[in-house]
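Following up on my earlier message about arginine. Here are the inputs again, as you asked, copied directly from the submission form:
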Amino acid sequence: MSETRVPRRRRLLVCEPRHFAVQYAINPWMRPDRPVDVPLAQAQWRALIDAYRAHGHTVETVEPVPGLPDMVFAANAAVVVGGRVFGSLFKAPERRPESVPYDTWFKSAGFDVHRPEAVCEGEGDFVPAGRWILAGTGFRTTRQAHREAQEFLGVPVIALTLVDPYFYHLDTALFVLDDGTGATGQNGGTGGNIAYYPEAFSPGSREVLARLYPDAVIATREDALAFGLNSVSDGRHVFVSPGATALAEQLAHHGYLPVPVDLSEFHKAGGGIKCCTQEIRS
Ligand code: ARG
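Thanks, got it. Here's what our run produced:
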């Protein structure tokens, strides 16, 4: 079955964890009294970048800024669809300044950046899934930002309510396995598929997900707590936390190839593989 899964090369933006630290607590994972091993974090991050490149993906970097310890979580800086960059307005005042270096990077790479009026945190809560965008709310990104993103990007935005503070961003509870666009980037019309942890969502949002994705891979709480849903899939390879053992088995069963990458130091800040990875969709 894995022969039928076709990877699509991605353009990814990342930020080296040179100034990574846990200095404040804006989610339940963060404990400023518990030290981060920065050299280990750098080695783990480098292994992720090496894994992306080894699988054919293009990786670009934004220069880290001292005093912005969460800047490594590149996914939160924007959501990019069809070459349109919808920037972020972070909820936490500590993270707001991150928008400046990211917006500067996008501008120098030739993109216009839309500055949102409402609080939103990029791909942390906006998950492009082929024909639509799944959008989390409840902890960070607001419903007003969902409307703003739909208007700017011209793609239907489907709101999903998160209810568990450990899964405060949509990308901690759900990821896209396959966006249904196929190897060429053209709409294959399959609708794609996702993996998610249902209990992270309100009852109504669970129903929405069940309707949209009857064949989804359903993860356990253990998978989710191991940051297994904070994964990146290229349609064939899934860069996934090695702690999510049950999930990896399911992925293999569905014809995907799990590529384990351990970002345990980043879990201390409430982040994992996807959080460290911004996808630039042209
Ligand atoms: N400490 C960061 C925060 O709470 C972690 C962000 C993780 N990123 C993500 N895409 N979930 O904002």
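One observation from looking it over: The radius of gyration is 17 Å. Hope that helps, and feel free to reply on this thread.
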